[in-house]
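Hey team,

Filing this mostly as a record. A colleague (T.K.) asked me to run one chain through the structure pipeline before their review meeting, and I want the input and output archived in the tracker in case anyone asks later how it was produced. No errors, nothing strange. Just documentation.

Input sequence:
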Amino acid sequence: MIAQVGDDTFEQEVSSAAMPVLVCFYAKDCGPWTGMAWPLQQAAWELQSRMRIVKLDVDSSPAVRARFAIHGLPTLILFREGEVVARRVGAVDRPEELVGWLMAGAPR
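Output structure:
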């Protein structure tokens, strides 16, 4: 299960996390987001011992959206120890593409 984070839980769930965290910034009415559900679930399952994957609805979390200058959706940002280590704008429709990108950004 991919957890939902927001303005009120971002620091605790992402910035203070012990392992890398991928945040998928999305909006409910964003068509490309719908196609990413399966790749995100597969990546979360495959990488569960190495990183955590969460999602953030930008319409419900304007402070975090502004903080990371999210304009295009979906946007994927990989954090390690609270720092941005990789960023990608646009949908990913294949789990293996997403996992490959994540492992390149968080090889530990």
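Quick notes for T.K.: The helical segments are 10-15, 31-46, 62-67, 95-105. The longest helix spans residues 31-46.
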